[in-house]
Design a protein that fits this description.
By secondary structure, the protein is α/β, with parallel strands linked by helices. It is built from five helices and 20 strands. The protein has one domain: Metallo-beta-lactamase, Chain A, CATH 3.60.15.10.
């Protein structure tokens, strides 16, 4: 299993002999709702679009998960697996195959990788987007991905999961609380899923962020604090901090 963090929520996963591109933001700026004065992200180091991508996976319809400029440039013949809102974004760019997954749905990609949609992030008052459990059908290794740290108790029935990709820090807005949940939610999901490895996501990367939101967002937590918390709770999970653009070969122990 090889994983490459491409900044923000974007990952290239090599699993089950397939290359999956997760929530890609690879080109152009990141802006929400065309209001750059509120929030704008720009990559300090351009990330080339990965070659030989077999599948695109989108967890949410927001710009930092279904990035319009990136989706516009990717090969439209690559199949897309998406939440219902992300599928609507992909449809605007005429992808030839879009598989929409509601919570509880599964999709088997070429008998190599199984993708299961589970309840993920609460976006707005009522919309719950997707988290995903990805299973290598050749060796049963598994990954759980949820980019905002919102973990449904439903995932407990799929334990153990080998690798968890989720935030480990909080990003807080005054009065509103955390928009990204790490800290306690990282400990909770580690207790539920007993992963061998946890990789943080959503916490920037090699990016220049600007705008009003950046002046009031407050970050809490660190890799060291999370690892210490796991040790105190007798969890064997190892926290690995990825470097943007650098591939990680994840070595997993065979579970009984």
């Amino acid at each position: 299993m090889q994983l490459t963090w491409l900044d923000s929520n974007s990952w290239l996963m090599e699993i089950g002999s397939k290359r999956l591109l997760i929530d890609p933001w690879l080109v152009g700026p990141l802006v929400f709702g065309n209001v750059p004065w509120l929030f704008k992200g720009e990559k300090k180091t351009p990330r080339p679009i990965p070659e030989n991508v077999d599948l695109i996976v989108l967890s949410q319809g927001l710009e930092d998960h279904a990035h319009p400029e990136t989706l516009k440039q990717l090969d439209k013949n690559i199949p897309v697996v998406a939440s219902p809102t992300a599928a609507k974004v992909a449809q605007k760019f005429d992808y030839s195959q879009i598989i929409t997954l509601n919570h509880g749905d599964t999709y088997s990609f070429e008998n190599s990788v199984e993708i299961r949609a589970v309840p993920g992030s609460l976006v707005g008052p009522t919309l719950v987007e997707n988290g995903y459990i990805l299973k290598d059908l050749t060796n049963s290794n598994s990954i759980y991905y949820e980019p905002h740290g919102n973990h449904s108790e439903e995932i407990k029935k799929f334990a153990p999961i080998d690798v968890v990709i989720s935030p480990i820090i909080n990003l807080n807005l005054p009065l509103l609380g955390p928009v990204i949940k790490g800290n306690e939610s990282a400990l909770q999901v580690a207790k539920w899923l007993q992963p061998q490895v946890m990789l943080p996501t959503a916490a920037g990367g090699d990016i220049d962020f600007q705008g009003l939101l950046m002046s009031i967002l407050k970050a809490e937590g660190s890799v060291e604090e999370t690892q210490s918390l796991f040790v105190k709770n007798n969890l064997a999970t190892k926290v690995i901090e990825p470097k943007p653009g650098k591939s990680l070969e994840i070595q997993l122990e065979q579970r009984n």
